[in-house]
Design a protein that fits this description.
Rossmann fold; four-stranded parallel beta sheet
């Protein structure tokens, strides 16, 4: 009941609400994507790249000092150890192989924290394809190391200077570009957002995370099923990758960490499910933060990757059906959790991932519980944010 239906919906959420100019591109994808990605030749090429280029499987690490601190059994799924430093590379490689098989010649993408932009630029360099990445001007400033990486990899980074100059606005600009260049360009959307079939396609490429997790947990604990899986959500690709093979296993509790910024009622937040309502954003029906007359509310988070006013339609469905438990995490809670992980485990998490770690301070787990946290990215890109943060405030 949690998979997309033939019309592209998860319950009432999803679909493809697109301009007429994009219809041929999106329809071509819809008709071809399953046929291509389920072919043996595609699987062989994709799996080989995941193994030899990305470095998969990523480890499932028992965090003994964190476990002792919280008096439960904590495992970290180490997506931060992938090539490029996050889970994003799983999806970009899958989509660029698909794009080449569809005969596309150019790639565009949007990025917030820069990890998807770096992963897309990396995939384009590997495949010899031109790459344009749209990024909010604010994010370009606060994620400068990733901007430099993209440019070194040969990508053109185009600032989005409208609105809040963050992820939403970068996505708007990428959509406009695609509308103007529909025939030869493929848009690699970085999360489980956008018109069908993108949410399902991205979820399938990221599902390698939970596929590996099942085997690793069986080896380490004797059971494929943990008691809890925790992941952060902006659009929600890392969470969907971690949840995918457990959606129909109700004994596994799924916990989502959304970014509450300066607080739910501060006016500076990105906690979509707590502040939003159903509407249309970037080609799909989902839950989004909006005014009474339907204008998108500008989100805020210290984390560039969670600074988004909506969530993927699949997560909206998980929220509405109560399959997943949605928690909100403030900037301060995330930063403290990120520092604690760094000092107890010697692992500096991305600020996005630190939001998932902060759930440990909100919830009480039993000593026998197996708790898996998807560590979606490493904190190299966020060093300036960590260093400039006033932990004593």
């Amino acid at each position: 009941m949690y998979q997309v239906d033939e019309k592209g919906f998860y319950g009432q959420f999803g679909g493809a609400y697109i301009p007429e100019m994009l219809y041929p591109n999106v329809e071509e994808l819809r008709q071809q994507y399953l046929k291509i990605i389920e072919s043996e030749s595609f699987k062989q090429e994709f799996d080989l790249l995941l193994k030899d280029y990305v470095g998969r499987p990523s480890p499932l690490y028992f965090a003994s000092r964190l476990s002792h601190h919280y008096q439960t059994q904590i495992y970290l799924k180490r997506e931060d150890l992938n090539h490029t430093g996050a889970h994003k590379i799983n999806n970009t490689l899958g989509q660029i192989i698909l794009a080449k098989r569809l005969g596309k010649k150019r790639i565009i993408a949007e990025t917030g924290a820069g990890q998807h932009g770096v992963a897309t630029a990396t995939a384009c360099a590997l495949m010899g394809m031109p790459c344009i990445v749209y990024m909010g001007a604010v994010d370009i400033d606060r994620q400068k190391p990733n901007v430099e990486r993209m440019r070194l990899l040969g990508a053109e980074v185009v600032p989005a200077t409208s609105g809040s100059q963050t992820l939403k606005d970068a996505t708007n600009e990428a959509m406009r570009h695609w509308i103007n260049n529909p025939e030869d360009t493929h848009y690699i959307i970085g999360s489980v957002v956008g018109p069908h079939p993108f949410p399902d396609m991205v979820a399938r490429f990221q599902s390698v995370i939970s596929l590996e997790m099942k085997q690793q947990l069986l080896e380490k604990t004797g059971s494929e099923d943990p008691n809890y899986i925790i992941a952060c959500v902006g659009g929600g690709s890392n969470a969907m990758g971690a949840f995918y093979h457990y959606l129909d296993r109700p004994q596994v509790n799924l916990i989502v960490a959304e970014a509450a910024g300066l607080g739910l009622k501060s006016g500076e937040s990105a906690a979509t499910t707590h502040l939003g309502k159903p509407g249309i954003l970037h080609g799909s029906k989902t839950i989004l933060m909006q005014t009474n007359d339907g204008q998108v509310v500008e989100p805020y988070s210290i984390s560039a990757g969670l600074d988004y006013p909506g969530i993927g339609p699949v997560h909206a469905h998980l929220f509405e059906t109560a399959r997943a438990d949605f928690n909100y995490i403030t900037d301060k809670e995330a930063m403290i959790a990120g520092r604690l992980c760094s000092q107890l485990e010697g692992i500096i998490p991305a600020v996005e991932s630190a939001h998932a770690l902060a759930v440990l301070d909100q919830r009480k787990f039993e000593s026998s519980d197996v708790v898996v946290i998807n560590l979606s990215g490493r904190g190299d890109k966020d060093m300036r944010t960590y260093m400039n943060y006033n932990f004593d405030d």
